[in-house]
Write a structure and sequence with these properties.
It is a single chain. By secondary structure, the protein is α+β, with helices and mostly antiparallel strands. The chain is built from two helices and four strands.
Length: 75
């Protein structure tokens, strides 16, 4: 089974230092939010990512599965 690709919407701007803590994700600013795109391999990975965001004081406003990116499309 291949991992699902997710879009996570984070309230506000995420600093470059914090973005670096999530190297497995593509991070994009979309004021007033930050979007993170990446693959989640299983439930434990998802819960770990959400816990890391919470530990950093970041608020996830939504997350959803998204299709895998097409060539040349970073999302």
């Amino acid at each position: 089974m291949s991992p699902d690709r997710y879009e996570l919407r984070i309230e506000g701007r995420v600093s470059e230092d914090v973005s670096g803590d999530f190297a497995e994700f593509e991070v994009r600013e979309a004021p007033p939010e930050t979007l993170m795109y990446g693959e989640i391999v299983d439930d434990a990975h998802l819960h770990g990512v959400l816990a890391r965001l919470q530990d950093l004081g970041l608020r996830v406003t939504s997350f959803r599965t998204v299709p895998a990116p097409r060539d040349g499309d970073g999302r």
